[in-house]
Amino acid sequence: MATVDATTAESGKAAAPAPPAPAGGFPGAELALRALLFAVTLAALVVLATAKQTVLFPVPVLRAVMPMEAKFNHSPALIYLLVALCATCLYSLLTALGSLRPPTARTLFILLLLDVFYAAVMASATGSGGGVAWIGLKGNSHTRWNKICDAYGKFCRHIGSSVFLALVASVLLVLLAVLNAYSLYRRSR
Amino acid sequence: MATVDATTAESGKAAAPAPPAPAGGFPGAELALRALLFAVTLAALVVLATAKQTVLFPVPVLRAVMPMEAKFNHSPALIYLLVALCATCLYSLLTALGSLRPPTARTLFILLLLDVFYAAVMASATGSGGGVAWIGLKGNSHTRWNKICDAYGKFCRHIGSSVFLALVASVLLVLLAVLNAYSLYRRSR
């Protein structure tokens, strides 16, 4: 009986002129994830932008010390990470404000595309930053690239934390894409 | 009249027991993209795995030459790229075979999730491989990491081509995710 009732109700709904789109979406979860994404990317930005350390290296021949500075903008990979973090931070803020009202199917679709795009960009920036940070941490004996983290400890902690937060941001963006995909899937059944 | 007819047909369809799911999807485009993804990842794998070069460096003190080998597995970032390419190559083959029959909404949803996941993995692997390849190509004067591509030209061409093909694979995976998202969107309207 319950099945018949449900079917009747469904056919009734279909026959009504221009039925309102089902609510779909998970506004609470989406807003929370986007707010978290904003916090994480902002933290990563601050940590990366403040990655700066000057170390005094002794020069025995001259009986002097030479200051050597390490900054994030000495590496193109870390500049790319900064730009990607900036873009994602702005994106998360705008979409968090936009997710306050219930989404239409079209909005869900566009948000899904943007989430996938930003997830790919953040993942690639995390990869490139992480790859360079790993060389800084461990060096590479084959290419004679020496590790620098024994001398620039504070700088490396900043870079490492920033890469870790960027990884968290990538995972959050994938989760947001999954959430929007699930909302679309629920509507399509 | 047409509207009324369509509405009646729709309500009739809704009332019928277990209506067949609409076809949705773009099986032709999807199969083509997945076949292209397979070809690209396989080519990238072969190019990366064969990246190997031995260069003879003269040692004037000993009046001899010393052979120095460069191989992709000297760098963790390139090993990660190889593993990601292997996984994506296998994934593209399996899903290409699976996309021969018309997908259900559930299949589209699961494929979308997997595409997003693999896109993120491939993007991060491309980023990390590209970051390391860039240091090999340009060096970094601040950290005194010397470029190696002036000596290991053939090796660097292999790595560069592989990273480029991995980038193409990432773009293809994003396109596949977009395609599946659009199919879900079309069904949800």
Automatic annotation (TrEMBL), chains A, B:
Annotated membrane topology: Multi-pass membrane protein
What are the alphabetically sorted keywords of the record?
A: Cell membrane, Membrane, Transmembrane, Transmembrane helix
Any transmembrane segments, and where? 35-57, 77-97, 109-137, 163-185
Tell me which InterPro entries the record gives: CASP/CASPL (IPR006459), CASP_dom (IPR006702), CASPL (IPR044173)
Report the residue ranges that make up the Casparian strip membrane protein domain in this protein.
27-172
Q: Where is this region: Disordered?
A: 1-20
Q: Where along the chain is composition biased (Polar residues)?
A: 1-10
Q: Where in the cell is it found?
A: Cell membrane
List the Pfam families: CASP_dom
- What does the record note on quaternary structure? Homodimer and heterodimers.
User: What name appears for this protein in its UniProt entry?
Assistant: CASP-like protein
